[in-house]
Amino acid sequence: MNKINIPLDIPLAKRSLYERRINALTKNTGRLFIFAGDQRVEHLNDDFFGPEIPLDDADPEHLFRIASSSRIGAFATQLGLIAKYGSSYSKVPYLVKLNSKSNLVKDEDPYSAAWYDVRQVAQFAKNSKLNILGVGYTVYVGSTFETAMVHEAAQIVYQAHQEGLPVLLWMYPRGKAIQNKADAHLIAGAVNVGVALGADFIKVNKPDDLSPHSYLEIIKAGGNCTGILFAGGAASNLDDLLNTIYTQVHRFGATGAALGRNIHQHSLKEAIALANAVAAIIYDGQAPEAARRLLLKN
Amino acid sequence: MNKINIPLDIPLAKRSLYERRINALTKNTGRLFIFAGDQRVEHLNDDFFGPEIPLDDADPEHLFRIASSSRIGAFATQLGLIAKYGSSYSKVPYLVKLNSKSNLVKDEDPYSAAWYDVRQVAQFAKNSKLNILGVGYTVYVGSTFETAMVHEAAQIVYQAHQEGLPVLLWMYPRGKAIQNKADAHLIAGAVNVGVALGADFIKVNKPDDLSPHSYLEIIKAGGNCTGILFAGGAASNLDDLLNTIYTQVHRFGATGAALGRNIHQHSLKEAIALANAVAAIIYDGQAPEAARRLLLKN
Amino acid sequence: MNKINIPLDIPLAKRSLYERRINALTKNTGRLFIFAGDQRVEHLNDDFFGPEIPLDDADPEHLFRIASSSRIGAFATQLGLIAKYGSSYSKVPYLVKLNSKSNLVKDEDPYSAAWYDVRQVAQFAKNSKLNILGVGYTVYVGSTFETAMVHEAAQIVYQAHQEGLPVLLWMYPRGKAIQNKADAHLIAGAVNVGVALGADFIKVNKPDDLSPHSYLEIIKAGGNCTGILFAGGAASNLDDLLNTIYTQVHRFGATGAALGRNIHQHSLKEAIALANAVAAIIYDGQAPEAARRLLLKN
Amino acid sequence: MNKINIPLDIPLAKRSLYERRINALTKNTGRLFIFAGDQRVEHLNDDFFGPEIPLDDADPEHLFRIASSSRIGAFATQLGLIAKYGSSYSKVPYLVKLNSKSNLVKDEDPYSAAWYDVRQVAQFAKNSKLNILGVGYTVYVGSTFETAMVHEAAQIVYQAHQEGLPVLLWMYPRGKAIQNKADAHLIAGAVNVGVALGADFIKVNKPDDLSPHSYLEIIKAGGNCTGILFAGGAASNLDDLLNTIYTQVHRFGATGAALGRNIHQHSLKEAIALANAVAAIIYDGQAPEAARRLLLKN
Amino acid sequence: MNKINIPLDIPLAKRSLYERRINALTKNTGRLFIFAGDQRVEHLNDDFFGPEIPLDDADPEHLFRIASSSRIGAFATQLGLIAKYGSSYSKVPYLVKLNSKSNLVKDEDPYSAAWYDVRQVAQFAKNSKLNILGVGYTVYVGSTFETAMVHEAAQIVYQAHQEGLPVLLWMYPRGKAIQNKADAHLIAGAVNVGVALGADFIKVNKPDDLSPHSYLEIIKAGGNCTGILFAGGAASNLDDLLNTIYTQVHRFGATGAALGRNIHQHSLKEAIALANAVAAIIYDGQAPEAARRLLLKN
Lengths: 298, 298, 298, 298, 298
Hints:
- Five copies of one chain form a homopentamer.
- Chain A is an alpha/beta fold.
- Chain A is built from twelve helices and eight strands.
- The first copy, chain A, has helices spanning about 15-25, 40, 60-70, 80-85, 120-130, 145-160, 185-195, 210-220, 240-250, 260-265, 270-285, 290-295, and strands at about 30-35, 75, 95, 130-140, 165-175, 200-205, 225-230, 255-260.
- In chain A, helix 7 (about 185-195) links the parallel strand 5 (about 165-175) and strand 6 (about 200-205).
- In chain A, helix 7 packs parallel to helix 8, helix 9 packs parallel to helix 11 and helix 11 (about 270-285) runs antiparallel to helix 12 (about 290-295).
- Chain A is globular and about 45 Å long.
- The first copy, chain A, starts with 14 loop residues before the first helix and ends with a helix.
- The interface of B and C includes residues 81, 112, 115 and 120 of B.
């Protein structure tokens, strides 16, 4: 994504609002760092309580404490949490994740409907005076419920754009028809669907083949008007994490990253420092080593 | 739950109404005792008529008679019953349980839709002039119908908050994917979902492992803005019941309890005395022995 | 059901209308006799044409001829029939049966949606100037479609009450989960569901165990604000029929009966006489022998 | 059907319009001849192109050419076709067939939803100024989708009557539960359902047993206010066809016939002559031999 | 399709708009060339990235670059793409393809719902000021979801015509009931369904039997008021492609062609030249050899 492109389904009266929100998300760089905090539903308590996880993470407020002290583009989480904690964390930039499901049912093709319609989010943004910068929605491409989900995604993009709200789509190949959900060609196909849906940003998982050729296919599929974010995935080695993000963004042309566990499964102080190191890479273009040093200073 | 926290999805004009209702439910203590009377649907007549159950309980009015003479936070039951008996029991604090299903179908994943939308409950509250303090809804986390239910729960919370109505969610892991519905880690996960949905109070069943570590995980997951209530479950020994409630609330930090069978499967006089003993523990912080003595005096 | 109890979901402006309709149905006695004429859908032509059935019954107008000359509380049938024959039978008290299904599909759990919404019935009542005294709906408790049906029933009660219309629910345990649909404990459970739905009257089938204990459980479950009607069932011996109705109503405290085949499978003259004999038992409290004599006089 | 009976679900303001339409359909005789032209969907191209079918029939306009030159009560076909050809055939009396499905899926119980709602048909009638005399809908009685279809049929009748539009229901027993769809007793049951739905006319297939007793049961079930039409079925011998129609209508009391293939699978000239011969039998009461002679003259 | 026929479901006020759009699509010839660009969803990235495909095609903008420099009737693609790229390609004639699905799920009967309703497309056309000439929708005839799709198609045609928008239906036999989706008789049947739905244009695949008799049946089924377009299908030899299009249109009477892969799987310059060669055949009636020479000159 090279330029701010205002889609034509945004009404004239909402174009500058949309542009301001894009600029806030990207800190005027065209790049984006999302702090993903929707996993209390997606992964239930697996990511938040356990022998290797600091007790800080057991409390839902931990995510808000991190978000309020880090240089993130937006904190993506459910509206119910934002409503409950928003009055204490009113400066955080939020992205409302519209759908979420638990990981309990494993042998059926996945489906997850939006919990709210966009009109309700817009009403909430207005009434709460919170800094809501966008909405998000996951599409399971290849699920037997794909039709329902692409329909809902299309409606969300259309209606969010009517409200001047940018949209981030999680485009995930899932279901019995999917043999390898990390196949680069398939991920590029999922990007195609997200682009056709009019997403402003698309979050995908890393391909299993980390070659430049794989990244080329995926990022090319995003075209010039849609930003590609890569997920952090299961907690990884710190050096690997910073190097990977740098390479994805500054070598292959990705728009940014969306990280959850890699950040919040630390004590508050460490989590904030780590989030700021990632921000330095994505927004300031710092090299991984510089970001690493920044982190150690904290 | 330590403080009254007014969620930001409650419109300005409804904030003091919401606060008054929370204060009425909690009797200004931050704690809550629900008298659960929705089982005439959930358990059909099994809990209400039988050799060991006093004949008083066969009549639906028994529940109202108890509710009207006890110091409960609210009597949770179906709107149809409230509409029929409300004119004779107009001082009872009610919580409208929005969904209920019978226990007959056992080999399919459970689903239960709301019988009314929140707007109808608000209209009913206004027209009937009854003291409706909130609404309730059960979510079966892990059911193949989880998606439909979390969607409906999210809408109920959003719309109830628009009306200044607090929401109690029954968060129950159920369905073929659930191996142990009393697993503390799983219950904490169900709490996570309820918190993300924006519930004001969450009712869960007791974990099978009654260790402090289990309670810690579950109650931590509730965070600072959402109250956790434990169900009474199948009728238990009186001393155990009072001790358990005391421990859950005053040692582990639970917000309260929701009891049904343990109360109503007694003659009217005993049921009222028992409800008041529980109220003394929850609201007044009396020790179980003191509550027990109170009970014997009746 | 001992008294006229005006449910609180009936708006103030409709309370006297509701009361008038209840009084018309019960002829100011608190008791009710329904002439059930919805079986042309439920049983197709099995009940209406055959070697043992008088040819009168082959014509849909037979039901209207009976209804217009008998002292019934209401004739329950489909709106389409009422619309077609109503101009010739404008004095009949009608109860619009909202859902009906044929008996052809036998190996799936039953479901039957309302054909009309209550608003349409109210509009029809107003435009047609017919004497519509209530609406009816069947719930199959224990069917895998129970959730859809209790939702629809709750909405019908709520909306009918908004229009000042009493509601009769047919509460029938059905589906693969049901081992004995005539079990008294199960029927009492079905009554519980109907009471929680806010029904004014509930029609159930007779239990297989006709003991006072069975009737006690079923009728107690109805409580003080909801009337229990028993179905006549397959055509039975005349003496048995009259004795059973007398016993159910005047010994066990049932509110009345709903009869179909037992009435209409006779020539017009006999059918009218029989309906009037039943009315004499239910409304006037006549003994079966007296009603029998009344019948022979015709 | 002996008299024009204006159903009471027709608003006062639409009663004369309804009556005019009934009179137009029946040419003031109380009898009805429908030219059924919905099979281009139902039978795809099987009835319209093949070695034994004149090439005229391959073009959809063939049906309009026949309809515009014959003395039919109405030409029943889909709204899309009427919209396309209506400006060239503006004098034809139309009946909009609301639902249609192809014959490709054979091993599932059938279901076919209405393509339009009645309000759209009424809007189309008004805007197009075409002579729309009614609407039609097929119900598959005994299908596992029966519930959805009877609900939709009831709504169509109710709403069509609100617009002063007569309704013809195709009542067809279909699905795995049906052992013999041509059983007279079952067809009479399907008629019962159509009558309860408030249909003005009901189209059924001929029973396999063509005895007077079978026709008696079926036609009696229609009662005095609903007309029974028999389908022509697979193309049959001309003499048989004319004799059968005469007997059904003038001996057994059927209201008329609905013919498709028997008419359109001829060259235009023959088709028109044949339609007019059928009209002479139905509307003028001519004997089959006289109609036959009329046909030969053309 | 021989003449501009304005369907009667187009309101008077929109007739000239509809006519202008038809004239723009057909360049006043009654013939139509669609550049089909919806496959980034339908075929994911298979058609766009691979060893035999120029890298140009990996970028979604490639399709817009071709469309903006070729003499096409319309570029058919998803609204999201049009919204994103429309401001840079504001002169392109667009046809909004309303439904699309990926090719991942292979063992279930296909279903694909419209992503937007027609009202939204009309609103988008107005707000964006783009040159939207029509809408498109795929129907899978013979799928177990056929009923849902023909209902949706009927609604789309009706509502598009209300807005003065022409409709192109992709009529594709698909699903387990289909033995040979390229059977000419079956394709003609699918055309029948599209004509009954009121489509202005119908896109079908080529029959496997390319005889004049096959084309006769298919094109006759379209009648005089509905245009038949043939798909290009998998990339074919250039001479074959041009010859086939010429024969279909100028020998058999087809209305035109809809091509995707055959065009876009070339470098930009070649793709534009090829599109213009096809336009010369379809719109100008040039012979394939002349079109071929035109192509070589580029």
